UniProtKB/TrEMBL annotation:
Residues engaged in binding Ca(2+) 1: E234
First and last residue of the signal peptide: 1-29
GO CC annotation terms, alphabetical: extracellular matrix
Cofactor: Zn(2+); Ca(2+)
Motif Cysteine switch: where in chain: 107-134
Domain Peptidase metallopeptidase: start-end pairs: 142-298
Protein's recorded name: Peptidase metallopeptidase domain-containing protein
Domain of life: Eukaryota
Family the entry assigns: Belongs to the peptidase M10A family. Matrix metalloproteinases (MMPs) subfamily.
Residues the entry annotates as binding Ca(2+) 2: D194
Keyword terms, alphabetized: Calcium, Glycoprotein, Hydrolase, Metal-binding, Metalloprotease, Protease, Signal, Zinc, Zymogen
Keyword match RNA-binding: no
Alphabetized InterPro entries for the sequence: M10A_MMP, MetalloPept_cat_dom_sf, Pept_M10_metallopeptidase, Pept_M10A, Pept_M10A_Zn_BS, Peptidase_Metallo, Peptidoglycan-bd-like, PGBD-like_sf
């Protein structure tokens, strides 16, 4: 009697312990944009649990401001979704159709697509070449950039930066140096570098908290702030790995922000906000090069 009771008890204890250990892993496996799945198919007039989260999502990326604090799919939300759909070349249905929701669920940069309502498509510089839109790069409001006395920039990795991130970031700086007048050199943190790279998680003291695995992967500030933050909760890798985010691809994008480029809606461009896991996108595209040349008047 006694031994079997003891083993039942320990089996119970082990199962409980295993579950407790696995739970955080299981919840991590889901992307932090997963909540968008439950609103798929909804439209104006609906009231579906999760709509408030969609409003917060669209607010975070600049598509909504001062929204209602409920799950009502209202006019304001419909119009925000239309703007989002126009930006991403989706059919402007104003509904949370499957294509729109899938687009919204791709991991992305945390920098808003629209800042203070001023970087909408309308204010973007669009160049036409033989009738085709070939350029949709954008700058931050007020076109902040580095002064010509600051073309030799220094950068430092802050404490806690994993070693595996350093070479990919170095190569990303080299990519921009190869296409601009900038040079980048690594210095120690105490030498007050112009640019800093660090790994942060959740709320980390700026106004842009990270969100765990998936969702927002990184962000960086416009000139001359110099901060570039990776979300430490992502599965960071070098190259194309299932479920992993390529350190170098993300660095090339974020350095674009550090230099003054905002998001581009050219899917091919480095400054496009979304990047799927297991995807490598490390080389500047014509849109990125035209953008940086235009900002700094390089011929
Ligand atoms: C956006 O507007 C707020 C408040 O008007 C202002 O403090 C902030 O600097 C603006 N941001 C940019 C990037 O222009
Ligand atoms: C930068 O240019 C040099 C010289 O052309 C080349 O060897 C190097 O591979 C380039 N680096 C990157 C990261 O593009
Ligand atoms: Zn970005
Ligand atoms: Zn941050």
């Amino acid at each position: 009697m006694a031994p079997s009771k003891a083993s039942t008890l320990s089996l119970f204890t082990i199962t409980t312990l295993l579950l407790l250990l696995l739970l955080p892993l299981l919840s991590h496996a889901a992307s932090s944009f997963e909540y968008l799945n439950q609103v798929k198919g909804s439209r104006k007039g609906d009231n579906v649990q999760g709509i408030l989260d969609v409003k917060k999502h669209l607010e975070k990326f600049g598509y909504l401001s001062g929204h209602s604090q409920n799950d009502d799919f209202d006019d304001q939300l419909e119009s925000a979704i239309k703007t989002y759909q126009i930006n991403y070349n989706l059919e402007a249905t104003g509904r949370l159709d499957a294509k729109t929701v899938s687009n919204m669920m791709i991991p992305r940069c945390g920098v808003p697509d629209i800042i203070n309502g001023t970087t909408s498509m309308i204010s973007r510089k669009i160049q036409h070449h033989e009738g085709l839109t070939v350029s949709q790069y954008a700058f931050f409001p007020g076109n902040p950039k580095w002064p010509s006395s600051k073309y030799r920039l220094t950068y430092a990795f802050l404490q806690g930066t994993p070693n595996q991130a350093k070479d990919p970031v170095k190569r990303a700086f080299q990519t921009w140096a190869n296409n601009t007048q900038f040079t980048f050199s690594q210095v120690e943190e105490y030498r007050t570098p112009d640019l800093t790279i660090s790994f942060q998680r959740r709320d980390h003291g700026d106004r842009y908290p990270f969100d765990g695995r998936g969702g927002v992967t990184a962000h960086a500030f416009s000139p001359t702030d110099g901060r570039f933050h990776y979300d430490a909760d992502e599965m960071w890798v070098v190259g194309s790995v299932n479920g992993g985010m390529d350190l170098q691809s993300i660095a090339v994008h974020e350095i674009g922000h550090l230099l003054g480029l905002d998001h581009s809606f050219v899917e091919d461009a480095i400054m496009y906000p979304y990047l799927n896991t297991a995807t490598v996108k490390r080389n500047l595209k014509p849109d990125d090069i035209q953008g940086i040349k235009n900002l700094y008047n390089i011929k």
